[in-house]
Amino acid sequence: MADNTSGFYSNPLVKWIEYRLPVFSAIDHMVGTQYPAPKNLNYWWNFGSLAGLCLVIQIVTGIVLVMHYTPHTSLAFDSVEHIMRDVNYGWLLRYMHANGASMFFIAVYIHIFRGLYYGSYKQPREILWFLGLIIFLLMMATAFMGYVLPWGQMSFWGATVITNLFSALPLVGEPIVTWLWGGFSVDNPTLNRFFSLHYLLPFVIVGIVILHILALHQHGSNNPLGIDTKGPQDKIPFHPYYTIKDLFGIGVFLIFFSFFLFYAPNFLGHPDNYIPADPLVTPEHIVPEWYFLPFYAILRSVPDKLGGVLLMFGAILILFLLPWLDTSKVRSAKFRPIYKQLFWVFVLACVGLTYAGGQPPEGLALIIGRVCTVYYFVHILVLMPLVGWFEKPHKLPASISEAVLKGDAAPGAAGSKA
Amino acid sequence: MKMTIKRSILVAAVALGFAAPAFAAGPAIEYQAQNWSFNGPFGTFDRGELQRGYQVYKEVCAACHSMKYVAFRNLRDIGFTEAEVKALAATFQVVDGPDDSGEMFERPALPSDKFPSPFPNEKAARSANGGAYPVDLSLVAKARVGGPDYLYALLTGYKEPPADFTVGEGLHYNEAFPGHQIAMPQPLNADQVTYADGKPATVEQMARDVSAFLMWAAEPKLEDRKRMGLKVMIFLIIMTGLFFAAKKRIWRDVH
């Protein structure tokens, strides 16, 4: 075996190493010439590698930030300012890390919606989908705890509000909150454990990402047509085709990232977090970071605290059931005339939730939040199973290469131009 | 048609998604956007403006407000020479110690010292200001919705209250302040400072200068950031263009 793979390379040093450690063939099978990918992936498929890039950026900047940060209630805020003012390029590191979190969520949200549109969660990719959702949950936990670390007003009050949610649980609620805090309020023990976990969880995410990629490679990428690859004529090697396409995507994404980083580094943040945490002064409106707003809106659209908490967590947990709630055998929404429309309504509902989550829960914003919450759950729990049964999908092309040769196979198709 | 619906939803998504954090700040009073020299991707601080602003801060604001994250050495960034900074710092006394006998002592400030605070702690500050706490000004330009525009509006916002508006005991009417009642009395009055460059010290001029100075205090690396941004953007655009060309070439034969 080792003999065979080393024979594959001509460079003597590569050959020598490969004979002893098959690392080059491993890379080749992972993202190289030996990994066949469907030839019709469009640009929505770029966001997986972009999310991976964001994870790396967060870990690298985070590790350097930790060298200058002090996790103590009396020093945390000062140490962040020390980073911003006195550490060489500290402002760059911190703004990269803070805006990088937003970029990570942008990439991951688009990645998730791409999966929803093209049915990437369906058989045989259910576990791939689960692993993605676990990464998403871990990301949310990591981002939440990271936002607490600068110990500004929103850090403190965000932590107070979110940890307090658990107090809604009957019987165990209060003890759980005390346990999370490490005391009877959000204080130094809370900050210390959040710091510890904020450093740990990204590496757990790396582990799950490896499993996510392993699961991906078992059956290969889904594609815009949602049909299985039939043979070599449907595929191209990952390298150089998708490595260069991903690099181009990374370039565009970094330009977008840099716009925020260099010209509007505080646009996605909240001014109140430049005020040191004060347990005696509650901000007028406590709002989480933008990427949590849809879930915050769901939480607040329910008048009952426990109900809101359950619905908020339920909103993510029901995504685990999608492979079974979506009863359609057809993966890609391209061939599903009704589901395709509903998908965009679902996107609109999520946007509505984001808007409502950022507003005080009253008046029109509350109504929008409630309507969108209802649609969110109805879409997943009722419409997806029903549409799968009643919808008559368009005829699927026989193979990817056939569809590619004929041009766009379905009317109104959203690309496979790649 | 479907494409237009989809497009408009996407546009709405992006617009609302990014507007959300701005909305999140709550119903704020509209502040007139000022034409700051540091606005825009090529913006830089106006050194003269910052030095005048520092003078207003030092002679007016610093009587009550601390600025504890800024050091005298930082003033070199706004155009003071090393000797000037040294001489300026030496006019302030700071507490140091303990010395060899265990006593704290006062000494003239060094360029490495942070600006000394007017009060030893928050309690002392409140007690001297009728219960109100004059906030630290190091970050105030980033800690308020509207930033320097808001600060300018606040400093020039002291007006006679409308007839039907009752101002509470010890409070002052201000157009820009949320709730319109602020504990701080009008801090700037015409000709309160004498500018070395001869600029007339109107309330508007002083408010503008000190707001710009506070923006610098809150974001001292703003110029570095925008300068680096330009280089990075040029690099990224060229790199991305090359990637795009390479992608086109590599994909030429696929289909």
Description:
The complex is a heterodimer of chains A (418) and B (255). With 418 residues, chain A is an all-alpha fold. Chain A has 17 helices and two strands. Chain A has helices at 2-7, 12-20, 23-31, 47-66, 76-85, 90-118, 126-148, 153-164, 173-181, 188-219, 238-263, 293-301, 305-317, 322-325, 337-357, 363-390, 400-405; strands at residues 36-38, 235-237. A two-stranded antiparallel ribbon of chain A has the order 1-2. In chain A, helix 4 packs antiparallel against helix 6 (90-118). Chain A starts with a helix and ends in a 13-residue tail after the last helix. In chain A, 45% of the residues are buried. Chain B is mainly α and 255 residues long. Chain B has a domain at 32-70 and 114-243: Cytochrome c-like domain (Cytochrome Bc1 Complex, Chain D, domain 2). Helix content of chain B is 42%, strand content 5%. Chain B is built from seven helices and four strands; from the N terminus they run αααββααββαα. In chain B, the strands form two sheets. In chain B, strands 1-2 form a two-stranded antiparallel ribbon. In chain B, helix 2 (47-59) packs across helix 6 and helix 5 (147-155) packs antiparallel against helix 6. Chain B starts with a helix and ends in a 5-residue tail after the last helix. Chains A and B meet through helix 5, helix 6, helix 11 and helix 15 of A and helix 1 and helix 7 of B.
Question: What layout of secondary structure does this protein have?
Answer:
The complex is a heterodimer of chains A (418) and B (255).
Chain A lengths: L1 H6 L4 H9 L2 H9 L4 E3 L8 H20 L9 H10 L4 H29 L7 H23 L4 H12 L8 H9 L6 H32 L15 E3 H26 L29 H9 L3 H13 L4 H4 L11 H21 L5 H28 L9 H6 L13
Antiparallel strand pairs in A: 1-2
Helix pairs in contact in A: 4-6, 4-10, 4-11, 5-6, 6-7, 6-11, 7-8, 7-10, 12-13, 12-15, 12-16, 15-16
Chain B lengths: L1 H23 L22 H13 L22 H9 L2 E4 L8 E4 L13 H7 L18 H9 L16 E2 L7 E2 L20 H16 L3 H29 L5
Antiparallel strand pairs in B: 1-2, 3-4
Helix pairs in contact in B: 2-6, 5-6
